[in-house]
């Protein structure tokens, strides 16, 4: 599980830099096919080491789809619709994750784990073919490649951008809270008084579908109200959801988890929208750095709460999660320039409308 996360953290800035220099569409298409091929090769693994190796390869390919696509959205869509486009994309990633879990579980139950990887690989390649066929070409290739030589340290310039650094911290905190919630809630619900089985715990991820429905709607709110307001709203939902999980009633706990994941998806769409705005140049590199911080946050979210779990169980973990969510709201409100969004209209003038 850790191998692709490490690979994403390492590869995201590099992949973003390549996309800035060579254009985004080609990187997206090649990475999508690479993910599908690696998934098929997972079915040939003869042991755990080979599984880990192919998972690492998948992690190397993931930034080419996730990070570069976010940069592509900011290049292609007009400023007043970027929030909607980003939110729709985030909802698509959530739906894809849920479908992947469901397909893998069903196929593995009837035909084994190798067949599950084959099924997922075929789906990935079919989707990749659709991306190759229908994804528009870069509408502003000269703008994507302008202004810097291939030898300029764009990553260093990105790290000097205060808005981007704040957004990276927000991304770190957002995935930290999500991973911490959905990792340690399973231990809580497996114990009395709930005593859920492994199969029942697996179905907890169905609450992601609530986020799939709500996140596209949040895009209009992001465009209308701005990222600072939407981040505060998202974190408020997250705090409410985390606190609801402390109630000893399974229906209320599930409602809390639905609020928690919806909070994460809205916050992710919000941060991604603001990120593209803050990066006037080298968007691919900037979003690559963001993706690294985002996934490092998820890794920490899986490990750090274990220290509190040993001391105070789930209530202690909830205290940590709520603290991180409150800190995220404060960081966004204090660190994001409220007038930055108005500049986006000037920077993106003339972009193609879909």
Q: Can you tell me about this structure?
A:
The chain has 354 residues and is mostly helical. It has a single domain, classed as Up-down Bundle (Growth Hormone, Chain: A). Helix content is 82%, strand content 0%. It is built from 15 helices and no strands. α8 packs antiparallel against α12. It is globular, with a radius of gyration of 20 Å. The two termini are 37 Å apart. The C terminus is likely disordered.
Note the main attributes of this structure:
mainly alpha, disordered C terminus, 15 helices, 354 residues, Growth Hormone, Chain: A
Mean pLDDT across all amino acids:
85
CATH superfamily assignment? MFS general substrate transporter like domains
Number of strands: 0
Low-confidence stretches: 142-153, 341-354
**CATH class membership:** Mainly Alpha
Report the sheet-strand fraction.
Answer: under 5%
Indicate the percent of residues in helices.
over 70%
Summarize the structure.
The chain has 15 helices and no strands. The chain is mainly α and 354 residues long.
What topology does this entry show?
Layout: H1 2-22, H2 24-42, H3 48-76, H4 82-111, H5 113-134, H6 141-145, H7 154-159, H8 162-190, H9 198-202, H10 208-225, H11 227-244, H12 250-278, H13 283-303, H14 305-335, H15 340-347
